[in-house]
Design brief:
heterodimer, A: 184 residues, mainly alpha, 0% strand, B: 406 residues, two-stranded antiparallel ribbon
C-alpha cells in the first residue's frame, strides 16, 4: 500500500479525506448486512470528524483571510447543514430500510458536490493565499483535532473512542467540537 | 440489422431548435455511470465540435448566399447538439478526471478502429497512435493520485489497463515526420473515410481541451504535463488529418461529416447502457438524418454527383467501446519502439528525430518523466493498474518489482 507523505499541508490532507469519503460511499453501496452496517458506521464517523475539523479550523481561517471569504464560507456551511440533515435521516432509517439505497445516493452526490465546491472555491484559494508554513500548521491542527477523535479506534483507547463516537450524529459532532476547542 | 441513413427521414430542420428546458440535460452520475458512457459522451462532443468548425471553415470560403444560409441553420443546431452532449458530463468531475476519460476514449476508440480498419497502411497509423495515448493515460493517472489521492482505476474501471506505452518522452518527433500519406478517395473503402474523420475529431477535441484547461491548474507539475501532452495531441491531429484525401470536394466532405455523425449516433444508440443518454443519441440520430439529406442535396446540385457513389450502401457494424487489453498488449510487445520517418515507420532514432529530441528536452527530463519520479518519491512506487499481469515488455516492468526480485 502506498503511504501518504508524513508532512502534509492542510489542503492536501482534506482532499485526501474527500477521496476516502468517496471510497466509503462505494463500500457502503457495495456491501450487505453486517459489513454494510460497519461501513456505514465508519462513514458517519469520518464525515463527523472531517466536517467538524473543517468547521472549527479551516472555515474560520478562510473567513478572515480570503477576499469574499465570509460569503464563501456561508455557502459551504449551508451545504454542510443540509448534508448533515440528510445524514441524520439516513441514520434514523438504518441500512436495512428499503429506502436506504436511494437516500444514500442523494447524500453521496450532495457530499461530493460540497467537497468539490470546497476544493474549487475555498481550498485552492487558501493554498494560494497562505504560506507553506501556515498550510502545514493548519494541517497539523486538523490532524491533532482528528487524533482526539479517531475514526479507527487505537489500542488502549477503545472505550474512550467508543464513547466519543457513539450515539446519534448530532451528539457525536458536539463532543468532537468540544474536544477540538479544548485542544486549541 | 442493416441501416441505410439515406433511406430514413429525420426531423424537419425547422423543428430541431431546442428551448432552454430541453437543453438543460441531466448529467450522468459522477461515480456510478458506466465508464464507457462517459467515453461515448466525450467522443460525440468531439464529433460535434468538428462538425461546427468544419461548417465555419466552409462558410468562410463559400460565396453562395443560399448555401451559407443553409450551413448557418444546420450549424446552429449542431451547436445545440454539442451543448446537449457535453453537458451530460457531471460538474462534480474534476478536470483531471475528465482528462483520464479523454485518454480512455483515445485508447479504446483508436484500438477499436485499428481492429476494424481494412487498409493496412491506415491500420498501422492507428496502431502507432494508440500506444501513445495509452502512455498519456498512465502519466495522467500518476498525476491524479498525487493531486487528488484517488486511483484512476476508479474512473476507467477494469476496462482499460494503465501502464507505460510508448514513452511520451520519445513521442516528440520532427513535425515533418507527423505527416502521413492520404488514402485515395476513389479507391478506399467508405469505412476508412469514417474512421479517419472519427479519430481526427477525437484527437482534435483532446488537443483543444488540454490547451484550454492546462493553465487552470496551480500545481507546477500539472501545468507542465498538460503542456507536454497537449503538444503530442497536436502531432496526432496532424498525423490523422493527413490520412484524409485532400482532393475531396467541400460538398463531398460535408456529406462525409454528416454521414459519420449518423454512423456514430446510430452506433452509440445501439450500444448505450444508460437509457437517458441513449434517448439523446436517438434524438440526435433523427436530427442528423435530416442534416445528411440536406448535405446530399447540396452535393447533387453543386458537385453534379450522387452521394451514393461515395458512401457505403448501409452503415458498417456499430463502433463499440469494449476492452482491448489483448490487442494493446500485443502492440506493446511489437511496436513500442517505433517512430516515424517521412510518411513511414522505422525503429532507429534517425538524425532529424534526435535533433528534435535535443531541442525540445534541452538535456532535461520532461514533465512526463518528472510526474513518475515525483509519484515514486511521494508514494514509494509509481501508479499502475495491470490486472492482466506484468508489462509485456520486460524493460518496462516496474522498477520496484525488479528491485524486489534481484
Amino acid at each position: 500500500m502506498p503511504t501518504a507523505p508524513a508532512k502534509t499541508d492542510v489542503v492536501d490532507l482534506l482532499i485526501q479525506q474527500h477521496s476516502q469519503i468517496r471510497e466509503l460511499f462505494d463500500e457502503v453501496a457495495e456491501s450487505r448486512d453486517e459489513a454494510r452496517h460497519d461501513a456505514f458506521g465508519r462513514l458517519v464517523r469520518l464525515l463527523a470528524v472531517h466536517e467538524t475539523a473543517e468547521e472549527e479550523i479551516v472555515h474560520p481561517a478562510a473567513r478572515t483571510s480570503l477576499p469574499g471569504g465570509s460569503g464563501i464560507v456561508d455557502d459551504r456551511l449551508n451545504e454542510e447543514h443540509e448534508a448533515k440533515e440528510q445524514l441524520a435521516a439516513l441514520e434514523d432509517m438504518g441500512p436495512d430500510d428499503p429506502r436506504f439505497d436511494a437516500e444514500l445516493d442523494v447524500l453521496r452526490v450532495a457530499v461530493l458536490t460540497h467537497a468539490r465546491a470546497e476544493e474549487r472555491y475555498e481550498f485552492f484559494r487558501i493554498r494560494d493565499q497562505f504560506t507553506e508554513k501556515q498550510l502545514t500548521a493548519l494541517g497539523a491542527a486538523v490532524k491533532a483535532a482528528e487524533a482526539t477523535a479517531p475514526t479507527h479506534p487505537h489500542p488502549g483507547t477503545e472505550s474512550a473512542t467508543k464513547n466519543l463516537l457513539a450515539g446519534p450524529l448530532v451528539a457525536m459532532v458536539d463532543r468532537i467540537r468540544d474536544i477540538i476547542r479544548k485542544a486549541h | 440489422m442493416s441501416f441505410n441513413p439515406l433511406e430514413h427521414r429525420g426531423i424537419p430542420l425547422d423543428r430541431q431548435v431546442r428551448n432552454w428546458r430541453e437543453l438543460d440535460v441531466e448529467p450522468v452520475d459522477p461515480d456510478r455511470s458506466d465508464p464507457y458512457t462517459k467515453c461515448r459522451i466525450i467522443t460525440m462532443n468531439g464529433i460535434e465540435v468538428e462538425a461546427v468548425f468544419f461548417s465555419h471553415h466552409f462558410n468562410r470560403i463559400c460565396p453562395d448566399p443560399e448555401v451559407k444560409k443553409q450551413l448557418a441553420e444546420v450549424r446552429f443546431i449542431e451547436q445545440q447538439q454539442q451543448k446537449a452532449v457535453n453537458w451530460l458530463l457531471p460538474g462534480q468531475a474534476s478536470v483531471l478526471e475528465t482528462t483520464i476519460s479523454y485518454e480512455q476514449v483515445a485508447v479504446d476508440l483508436t484500438a477499436w478502429v485499428s481492429r476494424m480498419e481494412p487498409d493496412p497502411y491506415l491500420q498501422q497509423a492507428y496502431e502507432f497512435g494508440v500506444l501513445e495515448d495509452f502512455d498519456h493515460l498512465y502519466r495522467y493517472a500518476n498525476l491524479y493520485e498525487m493531486i487528488e489521492h484517488r486511483k484512476a482505476e476508479k474512473i476507467v474501471g477494469d476496462l482499460t489497463e494503465i501502464m507505460p506505452g510508448r514513452p511520451t518522452l520519445v513521442e516528440h518527433r520532427h513535425p515533418a515526420d507527423n505527416l502521413r500519406d492520404p488514402y485515395d478517395k476513389n479507391k478506399t473503402e467508405p469505412l476508412s473515410k469514417l474512421h479517419a474523420l472519427t479519430i481526427m475529431s477525437a484527437e482534435q477535441q483532446t488537443m483543444n481541451f488540454y490547451m484550454n484547461v492546462g493553465p487552470q491548474y496551480m500545481e507546477p507539475i500539472a501545468r507542465q504535463l498538460y503542456q507536454e501532452i497537449g503538444l503530442i495531441e497536436e502531432e496526432h491531429v496532424t498525423h490523422y488529418e493527413s490520412l484524409v484525401d485532400p482532393g475531396e470536394t467541400w460538398w463531398e466532405r460535408l456529406v462525409n461529416h454528416e454521414y459519420n455523425e449518423c454512423y456514430l449516433y446510430h452506433s452509440f444508440m445501439e450500444t448505450e447502457t444508460d437509457p437517458k443518454v441513449k434517448a439523446i443519441w436517438e434524438l440526435h440520430l433523427n436530427m442528423e438524418l435530416e442534416h445528411l439529406r440536406l448535405a446530399c442535396d447540396l452535393m447533387r446540385r453543386h458537385d453534379g454527383r450522387d452521394p451514393e457513389s461515395i458512401l457505403a450502401p448501409e452503415l458498417p457494424p456499430p463502433v463499440t467501446f469494449e476492452p482491448n487489453k489483448e490487442l494493446l498488449r500485443n502492440l506493446l510487445a511489437t511496436q513500442i519502439d517505433l517512430t516515424t520517418l517521412g510518411a513511414g515507420y522505422v525503429r532507429d532514432a534517425h538524425e532529424r528525430f534526435e535533433r528534435m529530441q535535443e531541442q525540445i528536452h534541452g538535456g532535461e527530463k520532461p514533465p512526463s518523466e518528472q510526474v513518475i519520479d515525483q509519484h515514486r518519491e511521494r508514494f514509494g512506487q509509481e501508479y499502475r493498474h495491470q490486472p492482466e499481469g506484468p508489462h509485456p515488455v520486460e524493460s518496462f516492468r516496474e522498477l520496484r518489482i525488479r528491485d524486489e526480485e534481484s
